[in-house]
User: What shape does this take?
Amino acid sequence: MPEKLSELVEKLEKENASYKRLIRKCILIDDKFFDDNINDFIILHLNRTLSYCPFPGFCKYFNMCMETSCNCDVCDNGYPRRF
Assistant: This one.
């Protein structure tokens, strides 16, 4: 079932607010900044290197991940892997 327009708008508003908070403060991503703003990173699917993460809410390595190009397409019990 497709998402309702209001749900899509709400999602876009959250993403926009997260981008504004991160970009405004972001010169270098240090551990404290990442930890303090982790929910924004999860919403945007970005890891601490500002690289795309396909499983930010499920991956057990998300908090420490420094990958600049995640090529995993499955996340089983918190462990990302190639299918």
Residues 5-81 form one domain. The helical segments are 5-25, 31-36, 38-44. The mean pLDDT is 84. The CA atoms of residues 60 and 81 lie 12 Å apart.
